[in-house]
Write a structure and sequence with these properties.
The chain is mostly helical. It has helices at residues 3-10, 18-34, 39-56, 61-77.
């Protein structure tokens, strides 16, 4: 078990799939390069809160991640 899987288990969360991991790391890199590095953990935390809210209201986690990543990317594209 990798460290991230240990964190998921400790927090009572489902482990990230390889696809979710890739998507989250990619958008984190985009934030780091488009905004600034110190915004990356804060943006990913807020993305996680958005996903949690969607899942808590009955949404699918994978779809919630895709939607939140899309929203974050949309914010990066704004002037």
């Amino acid at each position: 078990m990798g460290w991230i899987e240990e964190v998921a288990s400790a927090f009572g969360a489902e482990p990230l799939s390889p696809q979710e991991t890739d998507e989250l790391l990619e958008v984190a890199r985009e934030v780091a390069h488009a905004v600034e590095r110190k915004a990356t953990p804060l943006a990913t935390f807020l993305l996680g809160m958005r996903v949690h809210a969607t899942v808590a209201s009955g949404g699918d986690r994978a779809a919630a991640i895709r939607a939140a990543v899309g929203e974050l990317r949309g914010l990066l594209e704004r002037p």
